[in-house]
Structures are given as structure tokens and as C-alpha cells.
Amino acid sequence: MTDSPVSKAMAVLRTLAEKENIGVSAIAVATALNASTVHRLLRQMTDDNMVAYDPHLRTYSIGTAALRFATQVLASGSPIGRVRPIIVALANELAETCAFTIYEPQTFSKIVTIVEHGPQPLGYAFEIGSKDGIHAGASGTPIAAFLPDEEIERMLQRPLEQLTEFTITDPDTLRRKFRQIRKNGYAMSRGERVPGAGVGVGAPVFNRYGRVIGSVVVTIPAFRWKKDRLPHVEKLVRQAAERASLVGDPSPSRGTPS
User: Fold this and answer.
1) Which end of the chain is more exposed for a tag (fewer CB within 10 A), N or C?
2) DSSP secondary structure code for residue 14 in this structure
3) Residue 137 — pLDDT band, cuts 50, 70, 90?
4) Strand, helix or coil at 239?
5) What is the pLDDT of residues 7-35, one digit of tens each?
6) Where are the domains of the chain?
7) In this structure, are residues 134 and 140 in contact, taking their beta carbons and an 8 Å threshold?
8) Fold match, 5-68 / 75-246
9) What distance in Å separates the CA atoms of residue 86 and residue 108, rounded to the nearest whole number?
10) pLDDT class for 82, splitting at 50, 70, 90?
């Protein structure tokens, strides 16, 4: 962590978002900050209602101002809010769990921001806010494949986590996989991120400048998956990703990096 007060404050807020109603000592341990720094930040953020303090329990939690901020980000008029109906429609049409992820370039990761469950009683459960690498899975590899070549190479120079026995970490194998994803326009995976998670099909989402910014993905349990479903599933997923790319901009210019 840097010495920036903003970075420290964000670390405190992230901790409270994950573990509400905790005390100064627990926050200090979770953030690797000293207790006096944590106490000072909490006092400042409590004054701004970003953090709420319970004087009886002597614990802290997310405040009303932070909740309002999160609500505005997820509201129907926000970018994420405008994508949500697309993911809802896809989940209903495929009757499976669908999600929308956003790319974080600094860490070559993607973050799950929208999850919609189909009517099936059993399905894969994405966790909103979860974050992991884009080198694996049908939610990550569509992003990686459509990055500029130099950015792909920077990612491949980093240690790639072996999430399951099916996770590909060999750079040459991943390069071939990415080329195939570019050619097909979608990615397919089976158990690359979570053991026994079934089959995932994902497609990239672009901004108006042709830069990949995320992905749309559907996951289908192995016992419900049949190969003859792929043409229908990948078509709907790609269409949903295209609609997500168009949200808020009637004429974005999308493209595949050279």
C-alpha cells in the first residue's frame, strides 16, 4: 500500500464492505495499518457519513453516504444499471446464471459487477465484487484475448495462478487460446476457475473506442450441458455482449487489436 491517505481510506472502506461491524484493532490487522491511523481515518469518514459508528458495540460499518454512492453507481441511469436489463434478459432466455464483469487493467483482473440467476433451482453462484485474473475462465479469457498484443505479453510475463487442474498457465498455450477466441468472438471453458463449476461461455464487451472493458458470461452446470447447446448459447451471449457495448453510445467504434 502507498502512503497516500486516499489509499489508506479506501483500504478501510474495502475492509468494512467485507466485514461489517468490526473494531479498530480488527480493521488495523486487515489493512496492515497502525491502529492510530485507522482510528483517525474512521473519525474523519464518520464525520462525512462514509462510515457509521456503533457506540454501544464500539464497532464500525459502512455509512449512509457510502451506501448512497453505491446506489448511484448501480442505479438504472448508470452504466452498470443500463447493462443490468441485458443480463436479466439473457439469464431468462438461457434459464442459467449470467454475469457482467469489468476489467481492471492495473492487475489484469476482472470484477463481477452484475449477477442474474435463471429459474433453475441449481446453478453456479457468482459473487458480486469478486475479483480474479483474466487468464482463466469464460469470464476472463474473452477480455484477455481482445487486449492489445503488448498488454497480453505484459500479462503473460506475470505469475499466473493455477486455480484448478484445468487452468492454463503456459504462455504459448494461452496465446493460441486467445487467437482462437478472437477468431470465434467468444470463449468457452470448463472448470478453469472453480472445480466442477460446469461450462462457461463468455464474450467481450467494448467501449466506444474499441477497447475491451469487460465481459458477459453464462455458466451452465455440467449435468445440464449438452454440446448441441453451444451454437445457441454462444450466439445469445455474443449478442448480449454487443448490446452491452452499445449501451449509452449509439455508434461506438469497436475493433479487434492487431
Assistant:
1) C
2) H
3) very high
4) helix
5) 899 899 989 988 878 999 999 999 999 99
6) 5-68, 75-246
7) yes
8) no
9) 25
10) confident
Single-letter code of the amino acid located at 41: L
CA 34 to chain centre: 30
Could you tell me if 36 and 74 are in contact, meaning their C-beta atoms sit under 8 angstroms apart?
no
* Residue where the block lists cell 495499518: 33
Phi/psi for 56 (5° steps) reads -75, -45
197: Cβ contacts below 8 Å, ≥ 6 apart: 124, 191, 219
Give Cα separations from 148 to 22, 85, 115, 155, 179 (angstroms). 43, 29, 28, 11, 12
CA distance 129 to 222: 25
| The pLDDT of residue 231 is above 80 | yes
Chain-centre distance of CA 15, in angstroms? 18
The yes-or-no verdict on residue 71 having pLDDT over 70 is no
Residue 251 contacts by C-beta under 8 Å, 6 or more apart in sequence? 208
- DSSP class of residue 194? S
Cell numbers found for residue 205? 464487451
The domain 75-246 is placed in CATH, from the list 3.30.450.40, 3.40.1410.10, 3.30.365.10, 3.40.50.1980, at 3.30.450.40
pLDDT tens, 37-66? 999 999 999 999 899 999 989 999 988 888
Cα separation of 197 and 190, whole Å?
A: 7
Q: What is the CATH number of domain 5-68?
A: 1.10.10.10
DSSP bridge partners of 202? 187, 217
The closest of 183, 181, 252 to 211, measured between CA atoms, is: 252
Q: Please tell me the distance from the alpha carbon of residue 108 to that of residue 133, in angstroms, as a whole number.
A: 6
Mean pLDDT of the chain: 88
